[in-house]
Design brief:
Elements lengths: L40 H8 L8 H9 L6 H6 L7 H8 L15 H4 L9 H9 L1 E5 L7 E7 L6 E5 L8 E5 L3 H6 L7 H9 L4 E5 H7 L15 H14 L6 H11 L14
Antiparallel strand pairs: 1-2, 2-3, 4-5
Helix pairs in contact: 1-2
Length: about 270
């Protein structure tokens, strides 16, 4: 495991259940934004050119995202007051809320291709994200060295496992588990929370200090210093929150919209991208 705390914990797998915050609107699945009011054919053509497949989730998401900020897409991202993260932090920080850290015992459907592959998800993330990753002799899982092209800072880091070096590269939860807990994860079944914390879609190897600076921040309080990665970062947060039916705050919604306005061709990631 890469030593060094990540910005979040682990989650469970199962069918994600709908969050039940009476004050917050859940983040809609991209497919839910497919409703098209009678826009011009020119607008439809531009939107469909963003992604492949007229009825695909990415197409529908891109179409809705291109509308003004008062469109159904942005309005439904959040309508609540910001959650009290401080009041809830003591609760979510208990490891039991998201299961054992880096566990391989997760729902195969939610965490493929990692779930039950015999390796912990921390080493899975290192093996995926490091260039020239080297394994410990005799192990098919434990990564001991490699180079990281860090998406958060844009720098390249040489990494080696060790007491004083492991924390230079850490595994971040793109949607921090502290944020996830107060925006719907507390209502998810334990297996689904365990999946959220170990989902390849929600994990990325990054620069350790950048990860520590992020802490439990959402898009309103923290964005990667590397501006070239911000569109991918926000799109990935939306994909994770959509998958697990989490919501966002008004400030978070505004910050996401501001970032995405700069990248009209951005699509939601699927599967387990870097």
């Amino acid at each position: 495991m890469v030593s060094g705390a990540t910005s979040s914990r682990r989650a469970d797998s199962c069918q994600p259940s709908s969050p039940r915050n009476p004050e917050a609107a859940s983040l809609p699945r991209p497919a839910a934004n497919a409703s098209r009011s009678s826009h011009s054919s020119a607008q439809a053509s531009r939107a469909s050119s963003l992604t492949s497949g007229q009825g695909s989730p990415n197409t529908r998401w891109a179409r809705a995202r291109r509308r003004r900020k008062d469109s159904p897409f942005f309005v439904r991202l959040a309508t609540s007051s910001p959650p009290d993260l401080t009041a809830s932090s003591a609760t979510w920080r208990a490891r039991t809320q998201f299961g054992q850290a880096w566990t391989d015992d997760t729902d195969r459907e939610l965490t493929r291709p990692w779930g039950h592959n015999g390796c912990d998800t921390r080493n899975d993330a290192l093996a995926r994200d490091l260039v020239e990753a080297h394994l410990k002799p005799g192990s098919r899982c434990v990564v001991v060295s490699g180079r990281l092209h860090d998406p958060y800072t844009g720098s390249t880091l040489a990494w080696r496992r060790g007491r004083h070096t492991s924390t230079t590269v850490q595994i971040d939860h793109v949607v921090a588990l502290g944020n996830a807990w107060v925006t719907g994860a507390q209502h998810l079944p334990a297996p689904t929370r365990r999946a959220l914390a170990n989902d390849p879609l929600n994990l990325v190897a990054v620069d350790g200090p950048a990860n520590e600076a992020k802490r439990d921040g959402d898009a309103a309080t923290w964005l990667p210093p590397n501006k070239a990665y911000r569109c991918d970062y926000v799109a990935r947060q939306i994909a994770v929150k959509t998958k697990y039916q989490l919501w966002v705050t008004p400030a978070e919604k505004t910050a996401m919209a501001r970032v995405l306005d700069r990248c009209p061709a951005q699509t939601l990631p699927t599967g387990a991208p870097r």
